[in-house]
Each structure stands twice: as C-alpha cells, then as structure tokens.
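Example 3.2
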Amino acid sequence: MVEEWDEGGLRAVRGALHEQDGAALLAALSRGPVREVLQLAGDGVAGAAVQGLPGAAEVVAAFLGALQERGFRGDEEMADRLRTVTGHAAISLLRPLAVDLEMLAMLLEGDPAESGGLLDLSTGDCRPTFIEGLDAGSEAEEADDPERWLHVPALGSRAGYRDMELFIEGLADAALADRLRIAAGGRGAFRRFKDVLARDERAWRRYHRLGDERQRGRARAWLAEEGYCPQLPVPRRTA
C-alpha cells in the first residue's frame, strides 16, 4: 500500500480529472492513499462508476470506507453521491452545476469585508462581487436576479485556522508540532505558521493536501445546503 502521494501521482490525478478521463483517474488513484484525495477525485470516481469502467466499483468502495472514517464536513455529501451512482441510495434532488469547488471555496473563505461573491447558476462561474462591472449599470441589476445568481457569503478564516490545528494534531514530529503551535498563536498566525512550515517541504505538501480537501468539502456542503451539487464529468470521447 502506498503511504504518501508524490508530486507525479498528484499531477496524474489532476490531469485525469482535467481531461475527464475516468480510466486514467482510476489508474492514477493507485499511486497514493485515497483518504487524501476524496473530495478532489470523488466526482471523477462517481463519473467512472456511471460509465461502468473496470475497477470503478472497487474504488467507490474504498472511497466510501475512507469517507466514513474521515468524517470531514462535506464527506457525507460526497458519500451520498457515490451511493447514488451505484444504486445504493435514492436519486439526489440536488441540481447539478458545473462549478469549480476550489474557486467556490476561495469566495466562501475570503475576507468578509470584501462581501463574498456570486455564483452564476447558468454557467457555474464564481465571481467576486467587487469586480469591475458588477457594481454599475445593467449588470448590477442582473446580479440581483435569483434565477441567474446565487450570493456566496465570505465567511472568513476561522475554518482555515481549524485546518491548521488539525494538521498540528496529526503530526508525528513533536518538535515541528511545537514550533507550529507557537507560530499559530495571536495575530499574524497564518503567515508565521506558513513561514515555519515552508522549511519542511514534505510537511508543507501534506498541509496543503489537507487544507485543499477540507476547503473543497466545506464548499460542497455549502452548495448542498443551497440545493446544488457539482456536475459529474462528461466522459471523454475516444476515437
């Protein structure tokens, strides 16, 4: 069993997701522990299961077990999607939307002073509310149309701070954990934490994988509360 992702393995996963290549994704997922990419790759795995690709059922089972064990926010929504596509749950009433969870998470966890953003329900695009063009004229009126736009609140950095705490709690290196606890106290905690962590490349990568997973999960959970879910990937056409 592979205990840790290397950069090549993660690039392979992200590349398969970008190309919407279910077979390549299933192969790439053997290169690292699935528990660290459940939110990143879950929709792609669901798409592979819908296609009935060889090995998809086994990967779905592994994802479901890891999701249940991990229990981050958004993991139950991801598990429900996998159960639905494999026929083990009722058809979801959530409306599919071609949204980038990473971009949505950036809006949700931004500075509340910047007023969050807007999610375009026709395209899935995420737009900060302060960008030029949405504060005047016809586009400002359009932004008030609930059939077209969903307001995304900026919730601040509290959840991100909890990500730092969880990372520290999970560290086997007691000395590094102590340094990070000191860095994470008081004003400027994020900058000091990252300055300390940047000295350890392996730990830096692990922290970012954890943060990315938790951010995507929070975005997925918020989206479900609003009645939506990420759209499943469209299978790649082969010659």
